[in-house]
């Protein structure tokens, strides 16, 4: 620090100032951010880069040669939109949504400085829940490929003739061809879930190298204090190579072992029948023992160790862990050989034993979620770090989100199985269908939708009531009485709709609780009756029977329709900027966090963006000795704060922060209190030079950060900005002013005022005490206005 101060007194470049702009979820071009059509990329690549105006490329060198810094800071734009947007094929990442959601649950634990073992237990339970989701996904693929297609349809003459491409697998159609034996059919069909598992491994490995293998600038030094209140400042937080590699090995092995179990247990069950060959029976027992050993090894790897954040961990685990997928693949190949052994008396009939598999997964997931809720409640009650009750669901946000992840996985598995069964068996007379539990899970979807529609109706009613109350406030604030009723109503409606974001905890709580209860009911119904809902209700009242049939059919079609809409909206969100402003924030919140619970979740763009920003700020301040303002909109403000936490204390003190439309407290502070809670934000505010935040009452995403002020002003938050700027036509606004909501904060004069206030602090010509007094006077004048 003393060397930096000495440089400021002797080096003309030490007074240099930089304004670093970071856009939000909607993306932006460097030309728009810098307000100049002539921009030059000064560092970075096609994925993410820093840009400057053509005239400012060598601004620091030119200013130093001229004997001092220029009168204005140099603007520089960081463009990272290609990390989260692109062509429509990226919408396929949405198929991995359950993995992303369970990964979010890892980061939602309550804030605490003690109870280290309890924190580790929380992370362990989330990792085990993620492992069950991998097994569930691969088991669903096995159900579709092995059971419905190769076992049931290919084993039934009518179904095989209806689908000619299955003829070579059918013993009745192909005259007992080589592939017509049940074991060989299963081995061939098992290539589909095997390929799916390998594809997930490949995508996880490739995306980590492309996006997340960026070392932070403090990786070569001792760990920084990280403001002492959040893990985001630890040297290894944005470099999870060791954990991701370990989890990738374990989940890949789990997927391959699931495929091996689906093939091997069917053959072993046949060999245990009376009169079966003793050799094959012994091989079957040996195979199942090997599968059990592999499953135990996989669980041990997942439970062994969590994240290493206190230092940059470049090492990988022992060869035993790294070679676990290869061992599982070898066991799978041996299983194929075992199942393909000729068994003349073996015939495919009914369905494979999938009910026990899916029932066991559902039961285990329920137990894990309940245990996670107990641990999260213990952490929340013991922390006492949320006096205002701002944490979502009082610390139970993580378990609720984990329950939603399990529900998504179950509904997707049941829906895909049901739709494939309906497609293969058009008349519903040939096949036994998917496991009973999957049919029950699909059948409860209408009931879940009824509950959600009722909740949405209540929220809409609340929004209408609030909109009526806001009309009076709008008329008073703009002095428009009576004014234009339609104009007043539009402004009041925008404010009321923006408050729905704060109702998200209620929506998540009701959805997760309803899902848990309906899932438990489906599990009990499936195992108590052993039949599908419509057949279980045959002896009941005709109305009950009809309701069961309707729910079963409607649930199946709703899943198919939902899948189509899901992918369609995903493609639109990646290709349409307006769509990204509405639904993109949810996806960007999910992919902001590193992969800590599931290695197959979509890649974390922040593991590329945060090191980019940290490297740039650290190298620039150390090279010039100057100060900088980092200006972030929406999700860009979260990246800016995360990058500031990664700086050393000396560098952090040279940084001023301007945020607008920021979800840093409204979303991140409430849902991720351990990392963006009040203690973490207060520590960041104390360590950086200055922080100002802008927000609007019509913004559904951004909000206040709720921090007390310093020499920059009495509060970090400026009073809520007027939106629209003018109620009607005025001399300053001769045309109607639009309601901007979350966008175009730069259009408000307050943005220029706050920006100028922060930038004026960067000039070395202004003495510190005078700058402090001037800032306080400006704040008082602005607050009076």
From TrEMBL:
Region (Disordered): 761-785
Name used for this protein in its record: Integral membrane protein
Transmembrane segments: 121-141, 186-203, 249-268, 283-303, 324-341, 361-380, 392-417, 437-460, 506-530, 550-570
Keywords from the named record: Membrane, Transmembrane, Transmembrane helix
Keyword Ligase applies: no
Tagged with keyword Transmembrane helix: yes
InterPro entries xref list: AB_hydrolase_fold
Organism, as annotated: Streptomyces bobili
């Amino acid at each position: 620090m003393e060397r930096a101060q000495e440089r400021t007194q002797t080096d003309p470049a030490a007074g240099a100032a930089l304004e670093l702009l970071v856009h939000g979820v909607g993306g932006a071009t460097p030309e728009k951010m810098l307000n100049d059509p002539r921009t030059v990329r000064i560092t970075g690549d096609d994925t993410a880069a820093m840009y400057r105006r053509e005239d400012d490329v060598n601004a620091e060198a030119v200013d130093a040669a001229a004997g001092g810094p220029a009168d204005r800071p140099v603007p520089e734009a960081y463009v990272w939109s290609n990390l989260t947007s692109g062509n429509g094929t990226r919408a396929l990442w949405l198929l991995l949504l359950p993995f992303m959601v369970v990964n979010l649950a890892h980061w939602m634990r309550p804030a605490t400085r003690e109870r280290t073992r309890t924190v580790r237990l929380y992370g362990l339970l989330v990792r085990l829940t993620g492992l069950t989701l991998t097994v569930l996904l691969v088991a669903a693929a096995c159900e579709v490929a092995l059971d419905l297609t190769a076992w049931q349809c290919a084993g039934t003459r009518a179904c095989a003739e209806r689908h000619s491409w299955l003829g070579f697998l059918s013993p009745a159609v192909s005259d007992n061809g080589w592939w017509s034996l049940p074991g060989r059919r299963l081995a061939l069909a098992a290539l589909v879930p095997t390929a799916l598992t390998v594809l997930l491994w490949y995508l996880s490995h490739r995306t980590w190298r492309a996006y997340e293998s960026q070392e932070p600038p403090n990786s070569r030094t001792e760990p920084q204090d990280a403001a002492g209140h959040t893990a985001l400042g630890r040297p290894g937080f944005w470099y999870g190579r060791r954990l991701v590699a370990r989890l990738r090995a374990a989940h890949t092995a789990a997927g391959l072992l699931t495929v091996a179990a689906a093939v091997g247990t069917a053959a072993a069950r046949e060999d245990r029948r009376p009169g079966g060959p003793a050799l094959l029976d012994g091989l079957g027992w040996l195979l199942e023992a090997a599968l059990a050993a592999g499953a135990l090894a996989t669980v041990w790897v997942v439970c062994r160790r969590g994240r290493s954040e206190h230092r940059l961990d470049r090492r990988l685990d022992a060869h035993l862990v790294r070679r676990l997928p290869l061992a599982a693949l070898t066991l799978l190949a041996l299983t194929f050989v075992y199942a393909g052994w000729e068994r003349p008396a073996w015939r495919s009939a009914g369905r494979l034993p999938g009910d026990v598999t899916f029932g066991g997964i559902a039961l285990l997931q329920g137990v894990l979620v309940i245990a996670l809720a107990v641990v999260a409640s213990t952490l929340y009650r013991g922390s006492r770090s949320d006096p205002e009750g701002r944490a979502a669901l009082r610390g139970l946000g993580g378990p609720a989100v984990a329950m939603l992840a399990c529900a998504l996985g179950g509904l997707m598995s049941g829906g895909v199985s049901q739709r494939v069964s309906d497609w293969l068996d058009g008349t519903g007379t040939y096949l036994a269908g998917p496991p009973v539990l999957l049919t029950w899970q699909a059948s409860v979807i209408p009931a879940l939708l009824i509950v959600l529609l009722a909740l949405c109706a209540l929220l809409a009613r609340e929004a209408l009531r609030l909109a009526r109350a806001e009309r009076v406030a709008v008329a008073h604030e703009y002095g428009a009485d009576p004014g234009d009723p339609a104009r007043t109503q539009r402004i009041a409606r925008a404010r009321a709709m923006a408050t729905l974001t704060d109702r998200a905890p209620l929506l998540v709580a009701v959805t997760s609780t309803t899902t848990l209860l309906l899932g438990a009911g489906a599990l009990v119904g499936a195992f108590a009756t052993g039949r599908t809902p419509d057949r279980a209700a045959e002896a009941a009242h005709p109305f009950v029977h009809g309701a069961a049939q309707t729910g079963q059919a409607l649930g199946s079609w709703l899943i198919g329709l939902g899948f189509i809409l899901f992918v369609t909206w995903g493609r639109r969100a990646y290709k349409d900027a307006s769509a990204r402003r509405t639904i993109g924030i949810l996806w960007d919140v999910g992919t902001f966090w590193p992969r800590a619970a599931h290695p197959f979740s979509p890649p974390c763009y922040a593991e590329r963006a945060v090191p980019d920003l940290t490297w740039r700020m650290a190298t620039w301040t150390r090279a010039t000795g100057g100060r900088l303002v980092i200006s972030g909109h929406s999700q860009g403000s979260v990246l800016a704060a995360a990058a500031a936490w990664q700086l050393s204390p000396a560098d952090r003190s040279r940084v001023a922060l301007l945020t607008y439309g920021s979800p840093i407290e409204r979303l991140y502070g409430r849902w991720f209190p351990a990392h963006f809670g009040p203690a973490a934000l207060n520590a960041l505010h104390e360590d950086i030079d200055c922080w100002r935040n802008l927000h609007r009452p019509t913004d559904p995403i951004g909000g206040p950060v709720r921090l007390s002020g310093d020499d920059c002003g009495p509060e970090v938050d400026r009073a809520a900005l007027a939106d629209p700027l003018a109620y009607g036509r005025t001399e300053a606004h001769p045309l109607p002013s639009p309601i901007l909501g979350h966008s175009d904060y730069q259009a408000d004069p307050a943005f220029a005022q706050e920006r100028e206030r922060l930038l004026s602090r960067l000039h070395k010509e202004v003495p510190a005490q005078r700058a402090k007094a001037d800032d306080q006077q400006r704040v008082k004048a602005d607050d009076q206005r």
